[in-house]
Each structure stands twice: as structure tokens, then as C-alpha cells.
Design brief:
The protein is mainly alpha-helical. Helices cover 41% and strands 4% of the residues. Helix 1 crosses helix 2.
Length: 95
Amino acid sequence: MPITREQVAHIARLARLAMDPAEAEFHAGQLSRILELVEQMNRIDTTGVAPMSHPQDAALRLRDDRVTEHNRRDQYQRIAPAAEHGLYLVPRVIE
């Protein structure tokens, strides 16, 4: 299913993209090649192939969920320009 130059120009106009006819012709060819590749992949018989998230049998290495840093909020808030009740105070930006 090839994409025509007119279809590319129409899509570009909808997306508010400036595109001259030579660019539209180039992109039409590129998009047509992509759609041909998708059609080739759809013709492949995948019966019996299990879906997978990674081509290799890889697993994430997870670390233990434990606290490694101490709570130093009070120390950090002492040097803050403005803090109150454990919260940083910032200037109002919306009036």
C-alpha cells in the first residue's frame, strides 16, 4: 500500500508543517518502504512463538529494599532560605 505525495502533503498540512513537493515525494517513498516492511513482517507465520519482552532471557538485577541514607532533613532545612514545619517555603508565582 504505497503512500502518495498528495497524502503526505495532506498530513503535513494538517500538522501545520511546511513541505515542498520534493520533500513530500521523498517522505512518501520513505513511508511506503516502512509500510512494505510492516506488511512483510505481518506475513511471517508466528504460530507457536511465545510473546517476549526481550530477545534474550534477561532479568533485572534488583537490590535489597533497605535504607542506606540517614534522614538529614533538619540539617538541610537549617541552611534553606525559608522553611517551616518540615516544608520549604518558596515565593508565590501565581497570583
